[in-house]
Amino acid sequence: MNLHNQFLDEWFVSYNQVDNDFRAFPFNYNYPVKYNELSNKLTAWVHPFVNNGSMLADNGFLTDHGPEHIKTVIKRATQLIVEMLPKERLTPYEVYILLMAIQVHDVGNIISRNGHEDNSAPIVEKLIDPLTPWDRIEWLAIFDIARSHGGEDKDKISKLPEKNPIHGFEVRSQLLAAILKFADELAEDSSRAARYLLDHQQLPELSVIFHEYALSLHSVLIKAKDRVISMHFTINEDLLHITFKKEIKFGPTKEKRIIDQHLIDEIYLRTLKTHYERLYCMRFLRPYINIDKIVVSINVNLNDIRKKFPEQNYLLIETGINDIHMDQIFEICPELKEWTGVAYSEKLKPVQ
Amino acid sequence: MNDKSRYIKITDLPETLPGDVDYFITSASYENRCLLVANEVNNLHPKNVIVCCNMNHHWYNGKNLEYLKILFGDSFSLLELNSKLPSQNNDTLLVKIISIAESNPEHIVIDITTFTHETLLILFRLLYTLLPVRTKVSFIYLEASDYSWNIDNIEEKWLSKGIGEIRSIIGYPGIFNPSRNTHLIILVGFESDRTIKLIERYDSTIVSLGLGIKSTPNPNNQSIMDIARKKHELLVNQFPHVKVFNFCLETPFDTKESIAKQIALYPDTNIVIAAMNNKISTIGAGMLAINNFEIQLCYVMAYQYNTEYYSKPSADCCIFDLVRSV
Amino acid sequence: MSRTEAQNPFQYQTPESIKTDDALSIFVDVFKDFYHVINNGNTFIHGPRGSGKSMMFRIMKSDCQIKKLGIGLSELPFYAIHIPVKDTSLRITDIDKLEKNYGAIYLNEHFMVLYFSICLFDTLAKEDFSRYDTAKHEAIEFYKNVLLKRFKLAGWSEYLHERSDFTSANQVFEEARNICAEMQSAFTRNFIVKISLNPTVITYEGPLCLYSDFLLPIVKEIRMFTFIPSSPLYFMVDDADELNLTQTQILNSWVSFRSTSDICYKVSTQLKYKTFFASTGSKIDAPHDFYEIDLTEAYTSDHKEKYNRNVKAIIEKRLDVMGGLKITAENYFPEDEKQAKEIASLKSTLIKQQKESGKEDKAAYDYAYRYATSEYIKILEKTGEGHGHNYSYAGFTSLVHLSSNIIRNFLDLASKMYVSTYNNITEPVEFIPVNIQNAQIEEYSSWFLESNFERIISDQRLDKQQLTHHKKLYNLIDSLGQAFSRFFKSDLSERRMFSFYFEDEPSNEVECVLKIGVSTGYFHRSSKSNKTGTGRAKLYVINRMLAPLYRLDPVSFSGYLFLKADKLELAMNNQKEFLKYIEDRIGKGNKEQDDSQLKLDLN
Q: Cystine design at B303: which of A54, B311, C91, C470 (Cβ 3.0–4.6 Å)?
């Protein structure tokens, strides 16, 4: 697969359309055409309505999950895989699976944000050409990959098959799921923000901070060869003097609370999330794709444009551990909370 | 025996088989019985000869394979099989039978004598399902006059030792509903040790042991029948909970009926049939299972086979045709 | 109990078919030795056929637990579902064709999930919910709000006919079971049987029930029922070796998901489990993914007494409940008194001789204990006195050892002895005479080996091409048996051996043969500390049922025969040379020569 400076979907749609040689796909079927038809339908009839559907169901206002977001995720995915070694590159069939998974991963938001990753199937099923065999195995693989990008279970990818044989073609499901998940994480930039509504203060109060975050993130650069991702933020000074309302889930009971959050703090939290997503996805991306660190830069546009404020840079990378706290082990192994030192002693005491 | 199958002398085979033979299919085995039918069919100058051979046992089968190759000359073709790879064998046979079917043959003759039970059932299913209806298929089975012929003492005769893998035969998967009891039906042959181990391995609540019988006594193999009867009795004594029934060794159509009757006695069970007697009765089991997909046919591999002294051929062979039910 | 009323107390019954009361009456509580089996968490239980795994599972089922603990269904400490995997129930050959061509993982998983679901719903359908007034209502709500939804999501909607006429919770579960059975049937009929008739790939358009989308969510909902224990469900997968490789990997994935708050897997194997890798690519390991119990390991030399104790309890219970006899196991299977006296007398003689040669009391007694039996057997062979050449293996203790930690071996042998005794007398069977014990032991020991192997002529060097692994296994067993016999009849201080060990890496072929030996029950695998004390060496103990064949004493042995891997190959391929090597070694006082020292490369 040589992308020739094309994005993944551009490359795929034109794959072998001159030779008409589709032996790289099951049943010798023209998968690029199949993908093109489905993605056109989704672009025309589904993606534009994802945000509206979610708004109606949940009263929220998501950052963009429509056609532009899909394009951005594809772009990020392309940037992640471009430096893969030739013998390890995605096969054409894997590219199809990945692209379809990207296309459908947020479609379930039409029904509801909650559990949206599970809701895509009934919607997509209605778009399938009845003359094309509805191959459940293939679609299951696509949905499994798509679903693993979100949801309550944070470790869905490890439950996927590492190598999934489908119609005689091996699909690296875990790898594809990790590409989608990480690409989706990195697709949260200013293009997603509802700029107009934000400027005119027409967004729901609890959604504003998410859009401000997205708006401030003007560039995400993936340098796969250098194994680094850089995230560049620019914030107007005025935004630093105020706080935004944010809903959080607090404590072990996940009680909903509304707090006042500075945008900078939100940036720290969100970039930390990106760092943890990187750590998690690297489990499945290695050895094919290696990203070792995230570099974050924050610039402030001062009200007085003649002045400059120093750029804030920080590096998110795994380091050695200085301090170990009990809380850390319980985060990784929650089942151990019942087996603290005190608990052991209690349980081993002879019965009176 | 009925008019659907008959016994003749092996030397009368060429006169008995009608018309030309488009395809002759046989199996090269360590048993010399695989050569006798071939010798007679060769007199009919079959247009195509397909010899199946388990190449993983080439050490045992090679000599007879070579004989058949020389015997049939230019019309010989080898179909390489492997007794450890049934799925691959199915694919190999499938491709071959499809190509045979496409040539619209009129008459195919198959010597079923020395095929393994498993390969025979796979072949039978493919022939049954894929061949044009008008193609006549004649099955030939050559009787044995003695088994384990180097040993006189009945108690010590053996054909195989130990029990290795038990597997379902491809094409006859059956349905295993775990909420139901399993009815294990064994068409008992010579190998009581293998039968005992099979009963123990399945641990079924219902076990039916079939005793093979012949309606026409044949002095040439009466001793074999006596051995089989005695072994069957010992098994029944060892496992008092088993049910017993008789099945026919001379025509597969009657075998099929006998098994069906036994099955009907215990409805709503998972059915597993192990055909461990002669190939005629094995075909009978196949005929029943092919139209009843809930029946599973299983194959029991042994550790060792008595390749040197397995059997002596008799002069009698049985012929019957493939009959496809509408 | 009269002769006609008494049953054969040792007759084998399939655990699944044993009624509740019968199961409880003959079961001896082994869970105190294996508490991980009944505690929360995933557990693998390894043991050869007949070591009691299925019986443990039988007792864990709700009917036995309710009766045993005297509590209601919802109060049980766990709710166990038995999932028997027979040889060809899930591992059907047609599915092998999926491996390269189809969605092997999804389709195998679908097949397994349906199978497991049928077991789950069948178990529930047969429960007694009469004490629980809300059971019907809860079950119907479950059917409407959970089950139908899951079937539809799996793609079965077009065949679903929503019912509304349930009169009990049992009917709901029966319906669920029947729907799963229909799906299983449709899968076989519409897809499985067609795979082998098509040379090319065919698409699958049927429903797919997977673990995370179907089974696990259903189990989570079932656990919410008020009439089911609130603890996790136990899925007791019996004989998991009978799964194919992909199915094994799928099961391992389920174990790796650590959903033990909802489902705990209790997996029994016969030491032939194919892999511990999961389809996710990771490997499951003890102890963090599961606890592991080897039933034969648990009863090795350090814990022999536990097995002895358990067998005695099992036998005496059976004699009481099924035979109507209140008698000790030792009295029911008496030893040969004459032989016992002769050995005791020989011991006294040996003690006296040792003391006269200057040994301390303790050393003298130790010597006598160690060597009395072997000296006795040597006398029997030379003089032909007493019982001719035949050493008697009769007696309960001897039989326990012969059974090699596999309770079913004991029961099988005892059953044959009972039948033989019954046929020889006209009164009720009140004990097994020594001569019948001896005759049956001889026959059983011989059959144990001969039924699986053709006896190879010992001086025939077998051509490599003719040798199969099984022939090599036979050679190995026979070579070792004869080797141990030579040691036993020698004058060496260390002469009682029943096991061998090696430290170097064996060839693939040797490994394969040993693996077959373990899975067929001829060897039991363990480990011991190596000669340098820096690690563990692989130890193989021969099944003691072979002791009578080679005139070995199964009761007392403690030595191990150290062998290099190449000597194992020799034992497999050339028995004559191997035995010559053993005789040389015995002649040199069992000092094995370390050939590797001669090959030191100074360059």
A: C470
Q: Cβ–Cβ of C207/A136 closer than 8 Å?
A: yes
Q: Are residues A38 and A54 in the same domain?
A: yes
Are residue A104 and residue A52 in the same domain, yes or no? yes
pLDDT of residue C4 exceeding 50, the answer is: yes
- What is the rounded average pLDDT for all residues in chain C? 85
Closest CA to C390 of C323, C339, C324: C339
Q: Are residues A135 and A6 in the same domain?
A: yes
Sheet strands side by side (includes B136-147)? B5-9, B311-321, B136-147, B107-111, B23-27, B48-54, B76-81
| pLDDT tens, position by position, C512-532 | 889 888 878 888 887 666 666
Boundary residue ending a domain (A187, A216, A247): A187
C13: alpha, beta or left, given left = phi > 0 and alpha = psi -120 to 50?
beta
For residue C127 the two structure tokens come to 């429960």
Cα A243 to Cα A208, A239, A260, B5, distances in angstroms? 11, 8, 6, 95
Question: What are the backbone angles phi and psi of residue C87, rounded to the nearest 5°?
Answer: -50, -50
CA atoms of A295 and A275, how far apart (whole Å): 10
Q: Contact, C11 vs C19, CB < 8 A?
A: no
Q: Sign of torsion, CA C509 C513 C515 C516?
A: positive
Judged by DSSP in three states, A282 sits in helix
Kindly report the length of chain A: 352
B-chain CB neighbours of C470 within 8 Å are: 162, 164, 303-304
Nearby residues of B164 by Cβ (< 8 Å), 6 or more positions away: B300, B301, B302, B303, C470
Same domain flag for A8 and A129: yes
Looking at residues A188-202, what average pLDDT do you find?
A: 60
pLDDT band at residue C601 using 50, 70 and 90 as cut-offs? very low
Under 8 Å between Cβ of C565 and C502: yes
Most C CBs within 10 A among A97, A137, A156, hence the mutation to make, goes to: A137
Is residue C511 pLDDT above 70, yes or no? yes
Cβ neighbours of residue C276 closer than 8 Å, sequence gap 6 or more: C252, C283, C284, C285
> Are residues A83 and A201 both part of a single domain?
no
Residues of C with Cβ-Cβ distance to A159 under 8 angstroms: 212, 253, 257, 280
Q: Most A CBs within 10 Å: which of C35, C96, C157, C203, as the mutation test of the A interface?
A: C203
Domain that holds residue A107: 1-187
The answer to whether residues A62 and A84 belong to one domain is yes
A238 and A262 belong to one structural domain: yes
Beta bridge partners of B52: B27, B79
My answer on whether A179 and A164 are in the same domain is yes
Contact (CB<8Å) C96/B179: no
Q: What string of DSSP letters covers C41-110? A: S-EEEE--TTSSHHHHHHHHSHHHHHHHHT--GGGSS-EEEEEE--TTTS--HHHHTHHHHS-HHHHHHH
Number of domains chain A contains: 3
Question: Which of A154, A187, A220 delimits the end of a domain?
Answer: A187
Give chain C's radius of gyration (CA, Å). 28
pLDDT in tens, B150-166: 888 777 788 887 777 88
Helix, strand counts (H, E) of chain A: 14, 8
**How many Å apart are CA C246 and CA C277, to the nearest integer?**
10
* Whole-angstrom distance, CA of residue A265 vs CA of residue C578: 78
Residue B8 to residues A122, A245, B12, B24, B315, Cα–Cα distance (Å): 66, 97, 7, 19, 8
Q: B298 and B285 in contact (C-beta within 8 Å)?
A: no
C-beta of residue C132 within 8 angstroms of C-beta of residue C120? no
**Which residues in A lie closer than 8 A to residue C282 (C-beta atoms)?**
158
